[in-house]
């Protein structure tokens, strides 16, 4: 068994908000979409589920919609094949506008007014309503741990699991823990020894960069730190120094636009690296366009995560996902994880069909979800309540690299790319 603590993804998502603040914001807006889905035979009362997404936010319109789109695709396909025990799944989706106020409005509408049996694939920039969801005993299944909520409250089940007590305080005494498996992988599998960390001179960016630096140093790397001005970043100077320092790897604490500019500068300077490492949030099919001006750096992009590569269509579960989402303009790892979250709810609901599909029954199934994989789409997920944080953990890793003409190419078996690594504390 393994526990996946996705510190990088959680902090990277929060970082996006901090780095986009200068672009302005909007008033909170809740958009309640009553999606009846495809009818199924019979007059059975539909099962109502809710999806909360920061579809409109300061970060941008498409930054957080992947899990929602993947979950909807699963439920559409499920309804077309008869639903759950003859009952259609009715999806009620809500856009919280990326704000705490909007999030509380969504929670009120879905949990208290619409009386959904569960929330699925929550992707909220500010999950301010998490405590209300927990108090209501509503299982929140397969949400993205952008903040600490999934390591704080009972009845919330993040897509990567949790070992924390979840007693109302984040993690253990306010501290969360993340492993060094990504750094171990590149050290052991690719002989990397020197790693650069690029950040802005901005508090959230600098804090995330420090966490990455700690992990790299714990794995014995020589670390090169590069910081640029948020308003007027000089990526050419960074690229020149990366070349001079002979960096094997580049990690970053900057936004997507900044990453594209950094890659372009690296190409222009002739700074070639073993890997320009990104996370699951940027594991998308839009790489060719996003990095169109940086072909060498683009083909050095690697992504790591805890779910099976969405390009691995040789796998039956991935092929099913891709067939159901073939009409989407783009594909992403977050879409696949939203699909997995919807499948998780469905498995829970099916287990309750004979006794009644209630919040309590679905929640009981989730509490027993040790080693759940969504048919092989996820690394085995655990939920425990350890009184003390683990000092180390055996952690597995899904790895892919971008190659022009092929897309994201998986690197090895994610269930066998495993390392026993230290767990480092950080404050959310």
TrEMBL record:
Lineage, top ranks: Bacteria, Bacillati, Actinomycetota, Actinomycetes, Kitasatosporales
Gene3D superfamilies per UniProt: 3.40.50.2300
SUPFAM superfamilies on file: Periplasmic binding protein-like I (SSF53822)
PANTHER family, alphabetized: BLR6548 PROTEIN (PTHR47235)
Domain Leucine-binding protein: 46-404
Pfam families: Peripla_BP_6
Annotated signal sequence range: 1-24
Family assignment from sequence similarity: Belongs to the leucine-binding protein family.
Protein name (Swiss-Prot/TrEMBL): Amino acid ABC transporter substrate-binding protein
Superkingdom per UniProt: Bacteria
UniProt entry keywords in alphabetical sequence: Signal
